[in-house]
Amino acid sequence: MKNPFLKVKPVGGIGQIGSNMTLIQSENDTILIDAGILFPYEDFFEIDYLIPDLSTIPKPSHLVITHGHEDHIGAIFHVIKQFPEIKILATAFTAGVIRKKLEALHNPYPITEYRTFDQLGFHDFTIDPIHVNHSIPETVGLLLRDHKEEFSLFFISDFKIDFKTKYERPFDFEKLQKLTKKSTRRILLVDSTNITSSTRETPSEADLVPVIDDIFESAEKRIFITCFASNIHRLMTFISLCKKHGRKLVPHGRSMIGYLNTANELGMIPEYSSVVKMPDSVTGDQENVVVLLSGCQGDFRGTFRRFCIGEDSTFKPRPDDLVLLSSKAIPGNEKKIGMLVNKLSEIGCTVITAADKLIHVSGHPGRNDLHMLYEKFNATDIVPIHGETYFIREHIDYIKQSFPQSVPHYFLNFDEMHIGKDFKVEMVEGEKHDPVIIHGRQLVLEREKISERRKLAGNGAVFLSLKLSKNLADVESHSFTFQGLPLLVSQNEEKFRRFLENYFVQVKFKDMDRATEELRIAIRKYFDQILGYKPQTFVHVL
Question: Would you tell me which of 112, 210, 249, 299 could form a disulfide with 295, CB atoms 3.0–4.6 Å apart?
Fold first, then answer.
């Protein structure tokens, strides 16, 4: 297709859960939608997160954020670093969350706030934010239209449909339909997260209230709850029930305190000052508390894990504690969460999970919810996004079965959707790029270094330092250390010392590189005979 009106290119978020970032290009505009991180989905040895490869995309003028989850805002620091003149647009709550993140990184940056009744104007198109429901406040879908309003593209990566929640307005279908009534081509890019779920209609946050109310009513001692800190509406339920039952609510963990403070600063929590107490203002033996623990995915440094294993400085688990897991395990985290539940059970705590009672609901749509959106938007084309590759394929099959009047389109990260000036759609396969690994002080860690870490972690290491004579004929002294090897090795280090001394008699170091490499190989073979594997070996000549 020559000179398309619009190009849509996901650089993250399709074929994976996380790292959401989508490039929108027209003749005169280049913008990004969202800038998220991807948490490691394989054994990357404690790296922090991954981001899309920003070097592969052209310079955008704007970054438009749909909501404040880490998989949509976590990479903003890196986007600013790559594109220091970019203008960031977000709703008030999301902007508050972003500002706190950037301030913590000592990198404040201006964020322009928009409201759901604003229209974001660009040269070739407009974007109208459409209020939707999700598991974090002020989530929007973005409706992109040409200036004649003949074409509509609705980008909605995270949503649910909740007509009963008391914390926010329902999904604004009325605005969506009003703005698209003249459009002849309606393209929907839509969430696939729950396409394989057996729950056809996602329950409302309101459905949790009576269940949690009963739990609070029957609890005699301390209550501990772990959930996603960003789910402000869930936290508001806990706060209102604490007020009803005469309990104090204690947010415990940096992210829990941070999200609550952001919501409170925006006046979203009326009962905050009378109910919420900081951890340093309470003692661990108080009975009438509900403690909110961050790190619901069993994060290694998370407060929930620290509490479960008895390493928290304020609260230690006791047999009469009630612990609620008001969240769902992200795929891959089930085992470590299960181990923490077992720890609590060993102590004698009463543990309630979402499998036991309705104490958690998803923030994503079931199949019936998706079908409602298809119909309300009257989509001519549907593009599944926000999901693993299997989810995307399942979503396409569902579209074919349930909404055959629409054309489904399959694409993954770095593929492109071209929309012509006549609004015809063409899908173009793109060159794939691996995500970038970030570790430590937001620094890039090269992918080949992961292989080195894997070998060190799997096999341990031997470090040998040599001091040679001036003529390089003899080894005057040497020292060695072992890391990650069995105690057996240390207990027999004299045997290893004799091996080295015998080896030194036979070798000269005039060809330094060759001699040290042969020595390194000989050491690996020596330990292979003892251990059955070869540790990483490093020889350093002083």
Answer: 299
173 with 295, same domain?
A: no
Residue closest to 344 by CA, chosen among 324, 329, 314: 324
Backbone angles phi, psi at 385, to 5 degrees: -135, -175
Q: Which long-range contacts (CB under 8 A, 24 or more apart) does 113-122 make?
A: 113/89, 114/89, 114/90, 115/91, 116/91, 116/140, 116/172, 120/64, 120/89, 122/26, 122/28, 122/29, 122/31, 122/62
Q: Which two structure tokens, joined as six digits, stand for 73? A: 């805002």
Residues 193 and 209 grouped into a single domain: no
Backbone angles phi, psi at 173, to 5 degrees: -65, -35
Q: What is the CATH number of the domain that holds 35?
A: 3.60.15.10
pLDDT in tens, 34-70: 999 987 765 556 667 888 999 999 999 999 999 999 9
Is pLDDT larger for residue 466 or for residue 345? 345
Question: Which among 61, 88, 270 is positioned nearest to 166, based on CA atoms?
Answer: 270
Number of domains in the chain: 3
Boundary of a domain, candidates 336, 353, 370 = 353
- What is the mean pLDDT of the segment spanning 284-305? 92
Average confidence (pLDDT) over 120-134? 97
| Span 150-177, average pLDDT | 96
Q: Which long-range contacts (CB under 8 A, 24 or more apart) does 262-266 make?
A: 262/93, 262/96, 262/97, 262/100, 263/93, 263/137, 263/232, 263/235, 263/236, 265/96, 266/92, 266/93, 266/96
Predicted local confidence at residue 2, as pLDDT: 83
491 and 404 fall within a common domain = no
Structural domain includes residue 511: yes
Instruction: Give the CA angle between residues 23, 24, 29 to the nearest 5°.
Output: 125
**Residue at a domain's end among 398, 418, 445:** 445
